[in-house]
Known about the structure:
- The protein is 23% helix and 31% strand.
- By secondary structure, the chain is of the alpha/beta class.
- It folds into three domains: 2-42 and 150-223 and 328-367, FAD/NAD(P)-binding domain (3-Layer(bba) Sandwich); 71-144, no CATH class; 225-317, D-Amino Acid Oxidase, Chain A, domain 2 (2-Layer Sandwich).
- The strands form two sheets. Strands 3, 4, 5, 6, 12, 13, 14, 15, 16 and 17 form a ten-stranded mixed β-sheet that branches. Strands 1, 2, 7, 8, 9, 10, 11, 18 and 19 form a nine-stranded mixed β-sheet that branches.
- Helix 1 runs parallel beside helix 4 (149-162).
- The longest helix has 17 residues, at 61-77.
- It is elongated and about 70 Å long.
- The chain binds flavin-adenine dinucleotide (FAD).
- Flavin-adenine dinucleotide (FAD) binds at residues 8-14, 31-34, 39-42, 44-48, 172-173, 204-208, 212, 230, 267, 312-314, 348-351.
- Flavin-adenine dinucleotide is lined by residues 8-14, 31-34, 39-42, 44-48, 172-173, 204-208, 212, 230, 267, 312-314, 348-351.
Amino acid sequence: xxxxxLIVGAGIHGAACAQAAVASGYSVIVLEQYEQAGMVTSSKxxxxxxxxxxxxxxxxxxxxxxxxxxxxxxxxNAPWLVKLVPFYxxxxxxxxxxxxxxxxxxxxxxxxxxxxxxxxxxSHWSQLDGLKTEGLEAVFKYYDGQTNDTLxxxxxxxxxxQLGAELITHATFRSAQCHQQGCxxxxxxxxxxxxxxxxxxxxxxxxxVNHVLKRIQPETPALDIELxxxxxxxxxIKLEQGIYYLETEDGRAVxxxxxxxxxxxxxxxxxxxxxxxxxxxxxxxIDYLLRAYNQYFGRALGRGDVIKAFAGCRVLxxxxxxxxxxxxxxxxxxxxxxxxxxxxxxxxxxxxxxxTAEQVIKIIRPCLPSRRPVADTRKLKLPA
Length: 384
Ligand SMILES: Cc1cc2nc3c(=O)[nH]c(=O)nc-3n(C[C@H](O)[C@H](O)[C@H](O)COP(=O)(O)OP(=O)(O)OC[C@H]3O[C@@H](n4cnc5c(N)ncnc54)[C@H](O)[C@@H]3O)c2cc1C
């Protein structure tokens, strides 16, 4: 039997491509090297379902609008997984982004999201979870989404499986030989080498995208990408009010978010040149996040307070610009001349997974036989 699509990797993008493909009527098989979906980058994110207020500053209006539309679908289709949460942006005397700029950004953001914002009255500042008030000039409040990224990825994967996609875990993609009509793929599963045929391969292997591409014949040039590591720490602070969006010592932004009875602080952007299997949070990143917390909150935290630290890697196009300022669009790479049957997807946002996957399906449609769609992903409720 020849499958329409073989997807390498069950992170959020592999799961979403599987969901969009089966919804369009295609037969799909997904290979995941680990025991479950969503064990790599898609469980190490900041867990925000957001347009990304800060992307307005770099003119990424289209991305922000797309993500805010996706936020709306997710709030409707997975209310048990995605919640709107208040976000607070304090502006101090030393903050680089002045109140007028934040105000302007929030006006645009609220037009795009159809959800308002406010500037808190001074009398409310003392209720903000111990936020320092010395030098504080203004606090803005708006709303954005928070999720559990691991559960979201598994819910999207489960939705795809319910529509007929097959997920094989402990299955490592090893090689593929492609021709004009399709590919013969080999993967390792329970110490056996298994061969199957697919009309199209979608490479959603996250930090391994180049490793997978290298194993596909005819070979296409390696992607000019960089892995940028982002660390989060969990600290024993219970936040009552919501998420704090803070400017760091180097002008970046970090979030301090409620996470169960604790708080999650993140993230960083540190170039990573190692093996994706060995990604771990660097000490310097942990210290940076502790400093960010301590700069703004009354109770000073030290290394001993860190309950857990974890890290994941963004896959970004190589560029001279700092990672913080680089575009967060998803990139769909396809070399039609040397390998018309292989599509590679990298970068992007957890929030935009459904839209991204629909784009991928639109691009590969001419390579596949015509099929009858069975569902609209904008309306699919995600299973618990
Ligand atoms: C620190 C950080 C914070 C972020 N915060 C946010 C946020 O708050 N909101 C947001 O919208 N986005 C956020 N993002 C972006 C988002 O998390 C990522 O874009 C997304 O998770 C990438 O998913 P993916 O499916 O492409 O990759 P991954 O989740 O890495 O999945 C790739 C999968 O491929 C599998 N695989 C690899 N090689 C093989 C092989 N040979 N055979 C079989 N399987 C293989 C891996 O095991 C893995 O499961 C953040 C990213 C980072 C790094």
